[in-house]
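Following up on my earlier thread - several people asked me to post the actual chain instead of describing it. Fair enough. Here it is, all 186 residues.
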Amino acid sequence: MGAGKVGKTSLTIRFAEDRFRESYLPTLGVDFMTKNLTVNEAKVKLQLWDTGGQEFVMSLLPFYFSGAAGGVLVYDITNRNSFNSLDYWLKQIRQNAGEVPVVLAGNKVDIADQRKVSAEEAQAFAADKKLLYLETSAKTGISVPDLFEGIVKVIVEREAKKRASKSKKEEKEEEKEGEFSFWQKA
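Reply from S.P.:
Thanks for posting it. Predicted structure:
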């Protein structure tokens, strides 16, 4: 998620296909890719939903957020407006996908000499919102695998904890099934 022209499509294609193009047409609506990974000995088929950042796409997004296990929030380190819009995009994620893990990606570090948003400011934003934070370059591939593999690892660990918690709860319920209580009003 993120504003238009921050590099969402470039990051997705760099990760899924390990390639980069200098120019892309804007994503109108949503594009979809998959990539198979192994994380913590678990085989994962990652579905990458590349959403358009234009406002006219917003009415479609709730359909794509439903069931999402995590999210990547992207801004362009050379574009202050893209950073300033992060609260809006994070709100969209939270309203439509709930409290899923989210990583904040400051993209385009290959042109850091044009930086308009400091790493410290972005780290503070991420810490305040309880997001993971990485700086990336879709063009050079810097930290792109770390971005996606990192969020998948968090999701896999979170799901494992949920399963373990559910198993313990089921065990307690089974123990209670063998018990009974008798109460009589005198």
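The chain has one domain: 8-168. That should answer part of your original question.
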